[in-house]
Amino acid sequence: MTAAKLRLEVRRTIDASAARLFEAWTTPRLLERWWGPAGVRCTGAELDLRVGGRYRIVNLLPDGRELVIAGEFLEIEPCEKLVYTWSSAPGPSELEQVTVRFEAHGAQTEVVIVHERVADEATRRSHADGWSGCLDGLDEFVTSPHGLTPL
């Protein structure tokens, strides 16, 4: 498979509304509280939530290294979908693309993440682990009594 065609899809159903999850994903002070797999801490998030707006997320890795993820919003459908480019430093130099869909099913929402244009299989596996960990954190954050307050 060529680099441009490597993709992954991760899904999780969470006991929260699409609006609640969208807010947690797009509000920097909230995103900082749940973002990252176990052992990774988000130390900063900046989001200019508009098509053409940029974002920057800073992760502190367990070994003390810093990983910066940055990109540009390509599509924004409030409470339904986000599409953005993805570049990490250090990491592959080509822009990847992420689509996050928030699919409401009654009181629950299925979060579907499609990460495309992944450089190689090792990076794809790393992203799969990272997204699974992020969804663990998001689920715990929005469903805990100390998480997001009701909208």
What features would you describe in this structure?
Helix 1 (18-26) crosses helix 2 (28-34). The model has no long low-confidence stretch (mean pLDDT 91). Strands 1-7-6-5-4-3-2 form a seven-stranded antiparallel beta sheet. With 151 residues, the chain is of the alpha+beta class. The chain is built from three helices and seven strands.
What is the compact description of this entry?
The protein is of the alpha+beta class and about 150 residues long. It is about 25% helix and about 40% strand. The chain contains three helices and seven strands, in the order βααββββββα.
- In CATH, what is the homologous superfamily? START domain
Distance between the termini: 44 Å
Kindly provide the radius of gyration, computed on alpha-carbon positions and rounded to a whole number of angstroms: 15 Å
CATH topology: Alpha-D-Glucose-1,6-Bisphosphate, Chain A, domain 4
CATH class: Alpha Beta
Largest sheet: 7 strands, antiparallel
Percent helix among the residues? 25-40%
CATH architecture: 2-Layer Sandwich
Number of helices: 3
Mean pLDDT across all amino acids:
91
Q: Per the principal axes of the C-alpha atoms, what is the gross shape? A: globular
Task: Describe the secondary-structure layout.
Elements: E1 7-14, H1 18-26, H2 28-34, E2 41-47, E3 54-60, E4 66-77, E5 81-89, E6 96-105, E7 108-116, H3 121-143
Antiparallel strand pairs: 1-7, 2-3, 3-4, 4-5, 5-6, 6-7
Helix pairs in contact: 1-2
